[in-house]
Amino acid sequence: MDMPTLTIGTRTARLPIVQGGMAVRISLSPLAAAVADAGGIGVIAGSGLTPKELTAQVHAARAVTDGVIGVNIMVAVSNFKQLVHAAIAAGVDLVIAGAGFSRDVFGWCQEAGVEMVPIVGSERVAKLSQRFGASAVIVEGYEAGGHLGTDELMLELLPRITDSVDLPVIGAGGVVTGADIKRALDAGAAGVQMGSRFAATVESSAPDAFKEMYVRATDDDIIITKSPVGLPGRAIRNPLTERLAVGDYPPIERCVTCLKACGKEYCIMDKLVRAQGGDLTDGLVFAGSSAARVHDIPTVQVLMDRLAAEWRTAGEGAAS
Ligand SMILES: Cc1cc2nc3c(=O)[nH]c(=O)nc-3n(C[C@H](O)[C@H](O)[C@H](O)COP(=O)(O)O)c2cc1C
Description:
Elements: E1 6-8, E2 11-13, E3 17-19, H1 29-37, E4 41-45, H2 51-64, E5 68-74, H3 80-90, E6 94-98, H4 104-112, E7 115-120, H5 123-132, E8 137-140, E9 146-147, H6 154-164, E10 169-172, H7 178-186, E11 191-194, H8 196-199, H9 208-216, E12 222-226, E13 232-236, H10 239-245, H11 268-276, H12 300-319
Parallel strand pairs: 3-11, 4-5, 5-6, 6-7, 7-8, 8-10, 10-11
Antiparallel strand pairs: 1-2, 9-13, 12-13
Helix pairs in contact: 1-2, 2-3, 3-4, 7-12
The structure holds flavin mononucleotide.
Residues 20-23, 26, 45, 47, 72, 74, 98, 119, 140, 143-146, 172-175, 193-197, 199, 286-288, 290 line the site of flavin mononucleotide (FMN).
């Protein structure tokens, strides 16, 4: 049996696969367009971009695909409102908002006919999102890469969220194979969001050395670190995370107040930008625990075909 489609409000993707937004500049138009073209939902990460840059990214994706394109913007960034408005004006299908909760974004999206999809970590926030008009919710478990809003695993959280709302629920965290997708859908998810697996694809805008770190990573290399956003973050161990672990914070060279509230231990934006630029000593390489199960750097199309084949095999195994 083939994978089911994923409908979020008025938009339908052929496959139940959302490519997670990955900042700074890891998921840009090349990755998002390739995923959308292959039948999933492609997501451009807006955090760390200017509204003008985000507009250009959305236009670039739109120019090459008719598939479903979203943006992911952290509520915690200072220019959240400007970025959401830029994305809507540029013609995105959906806005995904995480790392905080914004009431206003629901109204901005509804007015424009754009689907609003918050990332939630509890039944309370899922219910609140439904009340404000969310088209779907993403449940991100503790396995996920980047900032973490919960210490529960995705498959523990998922059934409680599906029971508490009458919306499509998308499971994120620890999904790298078609069998993982099947497990999440069997547990009640309408789709999955995958970050780490897509970070190590040809179309990802991560530098090659960053992708190679994923391919080489073992479970022991993937650690939890502190972020000035006020949430823990999951990343691959490197000289920077070793420093952060002992409280040896690199001084902030230039603050542009990129976050609404910043702990100011160090500059997270600088460290994410450095990693994307290829500095893997002093840059922060966000990755999910599942990065230890990423062993190659395929094109998006090869990956999507593989996921579909693995899904079918997992289904046959379950049926026999
Ligand atoms: C390099 C990287 C950057 C990320 N940046 C963001 C981000 O900007 N906003 C966000 O909501 N989630 C971000 N995430 C989380 C992903 O969108 C996704 O939910 C998560 O990676 C799912 O877990 P997985 O990596 O096990 O697939 C990031 C993840 C990674 C690996």
